[in-house]
Specification:
The chain is an alpha+beta fold. The chain is built from eleven helices and ten strands. Helix 2 runs antiparallel to helix 8 and helix 4 runs antiparallel to helix 5. The chain is elongated and about 70 Å long.
Length: 318
Amino acid sequence: MSGFDPDTVPTYSIATKTKTEASAMIQDITAKLYSDIPVDTLYHYTTFSGLLGIVESGNLWASDIRYMNDSAELKHTADLISAEVDRRIADSHPKPGLLHQFRDWIAHRITNGHMLFGASFRSNGNLLSQWRGYSSMGKGVSVGFPAAHILECASQQSFQVGKCIYSHQDQTTLIRQVMDVVEALAEQHGEHAGPTHFPPSQSYHGVFEMIESDLLRIAAILKHPSFQEEEEWRIVSPGVTDYLNSPVKFREGASMLVPYFEFNLTTRSNDNHYLEHIYLGPTPNINLSMNSLNMFLTKHRLSPKHGITYCQIPYRQR
């Protein structure tokens, strides 16, 4: 399908939409944002250790998006919102206090609020930029899954599959539509909405909380234009508000513990042929590595439909 078209997302004005339920308004935007359907192979770059875990457990780790490699993308969304707030205030917005509160709330909640888990896939399984990130010491692979399989697994686990948006113009249009929703909700519900009592400086926070999970899902697939070559798709979990009673686990990251979900790669039909193709990343031991990788998959009765391919990118010792 074609990419996200901001013109297909309805605009919510204060004058005409104040009676629309909050969930329906923002969910309409989110649903259209996640409406693209992948059809080609989806590649997941990982290390040998990651591949061992995927094959032996049948699970893929979906990390809290705040702890993923591209965590700066959440700040990117906050920056887009901040720029839109500045624009509206410059246009003499009648409720600057609402806008200032929203900007401050976003800056805090987007990194400290609800948890959201995701895992990344690329349309291109042989990108030099990705090998540089995942093939340290010649230990990288790009695992290709049929798109239909990932969609089925996501549906079974209430995950959504979204195509990342890189166009600054599309992102700006989307953020303006989100801001229209915020204003309409504030007009509908007024200050001090919801069961929680907030101080005067946070009088609209109850309104913002109504759309927090959807805002995170939107932020999860807005990426800086400089990453456009990745053509990334992302699986995104439902929002998690109570991690103590959710199946959240923790793994060792580069400099901290990283919360994650286990995303099950088996379907109801118990299909054991979910691998489409594998690229072996740059390595100084091509033949030996290809041989052991093939033996490992055979041992687990896995046979990628299109086999294993060496990336053909020269290995460089760092």
